[in-house]
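Troubleshooting log. The previous structure file for this entry was overwritten by mistake, so regenerating from the original sequence record. Sequence copied from the archived sheet and checked twice against the printout by T.R.
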Amino acid sequence: MPKIQNLKSKIPMTLPNPGSVLATLTELTQVNRTQALLHRVKDLSVNEFVCLLDFITAEFQQFLRAIELINNEALETMLEKVLEAITLKIGQILQAEHTAIFLVDYDKGQLWSKVPQDNTQKFLEIRTPITVGIPGYVASTGQYLNISETYTHPLFSPELEKQMGYKIHNILCMPVISSKNQTVAVVQLANKTGNVPFNHDDEERFRDFAASIGIILESCQSFYVAARNQRGATALLRATQTLGQSLDLEATLQIVMEQARILMQADRSTLFLYRKEMSELWTKVAAAADGTNLIQIRIPSNRGIAGYVASTGEALNISDAYKDPRFDPTTDRKTGYRTRNILCLPVFNSANELIGVTQLINKQQNSFTASDEEFMRAFNIQAGIALENARLFENVLLEKQYQKDILQSLSDAVISTDMAGRIVTINDAALELLGCPIKDANTKNNKLLWEQNLIGRLVWEVVPIENLQMRLEDSLKTGAKHYVPEQSLMVGLYQVISEERCPEPAQGLGIKSETHYSALRTQHSILAVRDRTNPDVFIPWNLTLTPQSEFLTFDQVQQLERSINLTVNPLTNPEGSVRGGLVVLEDISQEKRMKTTMSRYLTPHVAEQVMALGEDALMVGERKEVTILFSDIRGYTTLTENLGAAEVVLLLNQYFETMVEAVFNYEGTLDKFIGDALMAVFGAPLPLTENHAWRAVQSALDMRCRLEEFNHRRIIQAQPQIRIGIGISSGDVVSGNIGSRKRMDYTVIGDGVNLSSRLEAVTKDYGCDILLSEFTYQLCSDRIWVRQLDKIRVKGKHQAVNIYELIGDRTTPLDANTQEFLYHYHTGRSAYLSRNFSQAIACFQAAKCIQPQDQAVDIHLERARNYQQIPPPESWDGVWTMLTK
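Regenerated output below.
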């Protein structure tokens, strides 16, 4: 003890508590008297210095225990127990039936306390405004209130009494003051034992320990704040580190949600992302407790709590959700979950634009405080940065994939380079142009091998086109564009055979032996480029360091000669400066020219198959069964007589554009255009995997739908509508390229072609848009709804044929009105063919009542009435002979 006294004499103690050496040192440092302190410590003896070290060590040990306490997750529970014990003892000392300590929450302007419920272990949290009731007055003024009759007192709050759960007859309410002379709590003693009011002695007795209670509560709150800050800072750091590890938007979304929930000790946490273009907030939440399945939630950006925050950019801290008119309790009613309190804040990006809203529900202890808001603001800043990075990265990936898809979809060979002319990207068309076997079974390995050997190489080293280096370097240097038609590209393919060692399966069971390997021989093609100085020599991959012994002769390689159009363009950045080059190679070799020509009347798939057979395949005539479709515009002359030449061409081009798509979509071959008419073949030049008659019918139905859309656009443009007629028939035809080598067309000839052409013309007579011959109907009768119109003999033919009006396919059921109409019509046809013309007339009239404008009904009524007056000859078979084409 003498050592400590001697130390005290050497170190000035200016703090209120002279027993703390560290507090004294801190104050000396704060008032910039450190040099004086150092001078005094310098003069200490060894014993005095050892005493100082012991003293400081003891205090640091206390600090370590305090730090351990702060880091202890059970701190809050311990502090509540301390508060509960103090409350109980004050009630015993002052003989009160009920005691409550209200802590002051200056952040929210409230007093709050936890009171026991019905002698159970559960506690009810009570909150009341700091300006309401007797406790509120004491907290606001710092004055004592001793009221013997509470019900008559003007400050008495019945609402607070109801929350407390007991009747209050008399009350002693006293403030608890901290060391900083601030009210930290209010002690409320209710109903003194013996049914007598509290007196002055009770007040004085409370004052005896009020200061100690104030220090304890102040320390408790300081410890609580420090612990919360410590947990919050740790959680925020952990969240920041975790967020920085992901650039995946959905993964980041889940990380943000979980870290925010842990940080704020909330039951639930949701991060809504803001989509400005759709004015909505969306998120993904777990549909099940295990979090395996995620469901997407979308809400308007101006609805509910989150919508209010998104619209205003303001934070919302709601202590009682059911008292806020913006809260929608519908979800609570459905799930049984009760939302107590909500903390909702906006999330901004670096440009201070709203990108989301965080919503926390039900803090596990008490309500969300202003400090919680500050922590979430700090968290949201980090979350905003992470989300912005994830979204930007997602956009970059989408753009990269978009550009890649565009590049690969191009039919022309495209190669991009850097500023040195080295290949950066090369699409499949370019690889195929250079000879890479893209369509082989081992496509993936082929591409990988070629890309590994081409990407990063100077483009003119592996694409041997004359003056390509000069043109590309000029484009990279000056931004110039070059287009050079009909260039020659000569490359070679060399088959390389490599051996791979593969382990052989063991011959015995349960016996360990030496592993044996067998050689697996594989063959793949590589690029060989002709040596510029020696045209008889090819160099594998055109590698300049290849030994001469590995050079290839012209008879060792498969030579490929291409005719191409070359385009060289610069790639520029947003500022306009060049950042790379683009080499485009358009193949105009005979193979491509033939394919382009065939694609005008064949689908690309069929064209490729015909190409594989060779260009002479179409020259050979072939007899086969097909279905022919003829389509023609009704009243074309009248329709176009008031149009100029350019308008007529535009109309036909727009019309044929959509109709040809209907043909190609169902594997048809466009045979020819005949003025305003179209002829298509189904089943030639290559057989179809599907019934050719059914594909033709599908195409006709598609034409009907497309014509409706086409006419809808014309109505909007105040233009007359177009009507068409379609005739379809099936049969044997002869197909092939007919003409000369200089001018030829692929076409089909035969009776089926003539009949379908006649049926297209007959549609005018019967007022129908699509007619089928009996030959087509028989091939797909189970798939379509039809009406048997008549049995006719077209001009130039002796054989009569049944014709059918195509109503639709059987995937769409007929309505009751149509079914009734068809019943009367078919009954009338049966009576008509049986020579019962009176009954036929009655049936046709019944059908006419349902569809008054039906032209086929009118035709049969007229015929039946004529036959009623002048009966047909005995040889009459019901066939009607057409006199016109």
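The first strand starts at residue 96 and ends at 105. Archived copy saved in two places this time.
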